[in-house]
Specification:
Layout lengths: L2 E4 L5 E4 L2 H21 L3 E4 L13 E4 L2 E4 L3 E4 L4 E9 L3 E3 L4 E7 H14 L2 E8 L4 E6 L7 E5 L6 E5 L4 E5 H7 L1
Parallel strand pairs: 7-10
Antiparallel strand pairs: 1-2, 3-6, 4-5, 6-7, 8-9, 9-13, 10-11, 11-14, 12-13
């Protein structure tokens, strides 16, 4: 059941249940994978590796410990690329900066930096925003150029990026058509 809460920037938002949010996220991950296939890539969805009960994030073992994997691994074009999809209703207005922002867990960002190093493979993040009608993002390294600020929405912090500084990736309409 949805609950109402204050948004990151003071606006009221309806927060969907965890299961509803997970299902919505999975649907966008599948659309992104299908979109990549239409662009000539082969895609291995890591969400198929979510453990026997389906409630554990896919991970890989390294000498440094377990690392959470991004949503999919794509082959083609520029070689291989990990992709993490973050679907959101829209960007938030950052009052202090006077611009739109989007973001995700600082802990996951650190994990994906380690995944990139361990696999010698780029990790890219696609922020898919319904309100803006676009998917934007970039390689975890180039996201630094779009860095805005860090907030306390996640237990280890949330890293926010300027929406207008992120690389344009696709129209949401294209992604909906790819499903």
């Amino acid at each position: 059941m949805p609950s109402e809460r204050k948004g990151r920037c003071g606006s009221k938002r309806t927060t969907p249940s965890f299961e509803a949010a997970k299902a919505r996220g999975r649907a966008w991950e599948e659309r992104w994978a299908t979109y990549l296939v239409t662009q000539g890539h082969a895609v291995v969805p890591t969400w198929l590796l979510d453990g026997e009960s389906g409630d554990k994030a896919p991970s890989m073992s390294t000498q440094g410990g377990e690392l959470i994997l991004p949503d999919m691994l794509a082959f083609g074009g520029e070689g291989r690329t990990w992709w993490e999809c973050k679907s959101k209703t829209g960007a938030d207005y950052y009052r202090r900066g006077g611009y739109l922002v989007t973001g995700f867990s600082r802990r996951l960002l650190r994990q994906y930096e380690q995944v990139a190093a361990a696999t010698d493979t780029s990790v890219r993040v696609a922020f898919i925003h319904a309100a803006e009608g676009e998917a934007r993002g970039g390689d975890y390294r180039t996201l630094r150029a779009a860095y805005s600020h860090t907030g306390a929405l996640d237990r280890d912090g949330t890293t926010f990026f300027r929406w207008d500084a992120l690389e344009y990736l696709a129209d949401v309409a294209e992604l909906r058509g790819a499903a």
